[in-house]
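Please check the following for our workbook:

***
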Amino acid sequence: MDSGVYVRGLFQQRAHLAPLLRNPFTAELIAEYAIAGGGHQLPETMFSVFDHYVSRRLAGDETMLARLKIT
């Protein structure tokens, strides 16, 4: 999906998330969410964006967490 189409979709369908695009950190998290969903899925809430980020990080660090015995 073209990034312009995605951003327009956010502004039209999820207007409450549009102001978050001004912040580079949250804009990047939204972009990562879009890429992971094949660019076809708009986030319902910012919670779903943060949940995706944290879950992805925990999955990526699973080996290190196990080695450190962190659950």
